[in-house]
């Protein structure tokens, strides 16, 4: 069954906000989903959003604080996934992936696609085969540092908790590329294995020309 994002998550244009802590103001531009995530994380720590953002800013020395906050939220999402207790069904896991603004999909131990979110469908575009139930390598080219089969077995066995990959989707007139992180999730109770793959988009090539990667901006 294909997952479609709720209407509340379809309008994700970045919105600027000013937060303040101890007379210091921070002007940040983020998509609403990231603001919601930061508010939830701040509430869990029982601090105001301004203080939470200020504490993150103190530990960041790079040129793009907004991008840092997005990555921070995504890593929190990965940790939330890792804490999921997987049972015979994967509905809780589906909810997490569904509400994620980054392209993501869930794979079985056989690398078949169990579910994917709207963002992944948009990245993939029109496909010649059905996505649900398809084996991953029939949809996209997957490049890993070692053999994909070896990497996958390490994920299933628990020898490696995660793996990095490069994805390439080739369609008439266009080539889509993405970096991907594969996160292994298993349940000893039910002897189940799932993998969640998050995509970080790169450049898109159309026809004979190549578009450069977009600049890193707030």
Give a structural overview.
The protein has helices at 32-44, 49-58, 65-83, 91-98, 118-124, 136-139, 148-157; strands at residues 15-21, 24-30, 104-108, 113-116, 141-143, 162-171, 174-187, 192-206, 209-210. The chain is an alpha+beta fold and 218 residues long. Strands 3, 4, 5, 6, 7, 8 and 9 form a seven-stranded antiparallel β-sheet that branches. Helix 1 (32-44) packs across helix 2. The longest helix has 19 residues, at 65-83. The chain is globular and about 55 Å long. The model is unreliable at 206-218 (pLDDT under 50).
List keywords for this structure.
218 residues; alpha+beta; two-stranded antiparallel sheet; 9 strands; disordered C terminus
Largest sheet: 7 strands, antiparallel
Average pLDDT rating: 79
Q: Tell me the series of helices and strands, N- to C-terminal.
A: EEHHHHEEHHEHEEEE
Structural class: alpha+beta
First-to-last CA distance: 35 Å
Q: Unreliable segments (pLDDT under 50, ≥5 consecutive)? A: 206-218
List the helices and strands and how they pair.
Elements: E1 15-21, E2 24-30, H1 32-44, H2 49-58, H3 65-83, H4 91-98, E3 104-108, E4 113-116, H5 118-124, H6 136-139, E5 141-143, H7 148-157, E6 162-171, E7 174-187, E8 192-206, E9 209-210
Helix pairs in contact: 1-2
How would you briefly describe this protein structure?
With 218 residues, the protein is an alpha+beta fold.
């Amino acid at each position: 069954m294909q997952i479609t994002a709720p209407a509340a998550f379809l309008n994700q244009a970045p919105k600027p906000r000013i937060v303040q802590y101890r007379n210091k103001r921070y002007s940040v531009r983020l998509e609403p989903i990231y603001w919601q995530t930061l508010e939830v994380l701040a509430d869990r720590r029982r601090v105001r959003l301004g203080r939470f953002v200020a504490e993150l800013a103190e530990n960041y020395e790079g040129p793009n604080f907004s991008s840092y906050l997005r990555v921070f939220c995504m890593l929190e999402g990965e940790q939330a996934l890792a804490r999921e207790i997987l049972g015979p069904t994967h509905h809780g896991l589906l909810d997490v992936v569904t509400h994620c603004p980054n392209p993501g999909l869930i794979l079985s131990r056989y690398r078949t696609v169990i579910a994917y979110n709207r963002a992944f469908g948009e990245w993939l575009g029109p496909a010649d085969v059905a996505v649900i139930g398809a084996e991953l390598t029939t949809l996209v080219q997957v490049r890993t540092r070692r053999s994909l089969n070896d990497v996958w077995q390490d994920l299933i066995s628990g020898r490696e908790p995660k793996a990095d990959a490069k994805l390439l989707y080739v369609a008439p007139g266009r080539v889509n590329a993405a970096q991907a992180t594969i996160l292994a999730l298993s349940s000893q109770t039910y002897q189940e294995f799932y993998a969640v793959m998050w995509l970080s988009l790169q450049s898109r090539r159309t026809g004979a020309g190549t578009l450069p990667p977009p600049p890193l901006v707030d």
